[in-house]
Amino acid sequence: MHTHLFVDGLDLVARSDSRMAGLDPALLLRPGGPLYPADSPRTVDVAAQVGPDPGPERLSLRVRLRGGTVIWSDLMYPGPDGGVVEEVRFRLEQYLGEVGRAYAAARK
Q1: pLDDT above 90: percentage of residues in the chain
Q2: Which of 17, 31, 37, 78 would you call most buried, defined as having the most Cβ atoms within 10 angstroms of its Cβ?
């Protein structure tokens, strides 16, 4: 099972590197897990290369909390207008709700 990370309707992993697949939702989305924002910024691996012999390459992003905003940075994928998306921001309440919803759905 793979985590699909959508931002503004776009699959961040597929648009960043089509050779990658999102890591297991039990790892990424669990309460207090890597995608949960914390006081200190951290780099999180969100995807790995797939294939008969998975490679060591990883897709990572930086997660940080600034007030009521969760920020993902160190991104590099084409946005809907073709420009490069380097950072995205989420309202904390909505972000935590979506992560919790996705984790519950993955456990079914």
Answers
A1: 66
A2: 37
